Amino acid sequence: MNVPGPRFWDIFFEVYEALPRQGPGNKACAVRALSLCLELPDSPGILDLGCGVGGQTLYLAELTSGSIVAIDNHAPSIERLKRSIAVSGLSRRVRAIVGDMAHPELPPSSFDLTWSEGALYSIGLRKALSVCHGLLRPGGYLAFTDAIWREENPPPEVRAGFDLDYPAMGWLDDDLAAIQDEGFEVVGHFTLPDEAWWDDFYTPMENRITELRGKYASDAEASEILDQLAGEPGLHRRYSDFYAYEFFVARRPPGSKQAGGFYKNLNVH
Description:
The chain is of the alpha/beta class. The protein has helices spanning 6-16, 27-35, 55-63, 75-87, 125-135, 156-165, 172-181, 195-215, 220-239, and strands spanning 45-49, 67-72, 94-98, 111-117, 136-149, 185-191, 243-251.
């Protein structure tokens, strides 16, 4: 399988950085997930891991009165989020920083809610769950989305797409087992509806690709990359029965001990 080259990633980010969000989700789903976090403090400390340009970060700022730290390893996305924070007058409550989700330089047991939409898989789900467990206070909540299979024997092009981006993708029961194995209690979960794929993600993506086709009309390589990116929403139209995004809400049990080894040598600021 061909590994995408530098030109692919240049075009990829030119598409994705212009979108309201970089994966499926919407405000209604955020509201539903928050409704499962029944014992959050009035002004919780919230961490948004893998925030991208911060579509969901801004929802969290609107839906809670908490303070939010948003982390992503892609500096241009963080710069865009910083501009959104300033324009929205949220600088006193929301801080966006460039950081490594696998090794966040943040104090352990310091958040009431850790949030991550479509990002934990990038460092391995179980490792990510361990990181989140350590960052949460006892009794704190974890809310995250993850891609899962729903039907056996997906078409080869669907399998190939997920094998490239998420080869370890599993089934609902696999994620539920991982959550419990990493010391969490499962509070609830639900499947993202189809509009959560289209309203703020695939529809803006298709519009952005159309816009860039004009810019790159005489550039055969760029046009081919845009065709490749346009294939994703096309596959979703045809084959969405085979996979889904699931929203999970879990809780670090009250009174549980801090996770071990990973945090012993953490550089805390």
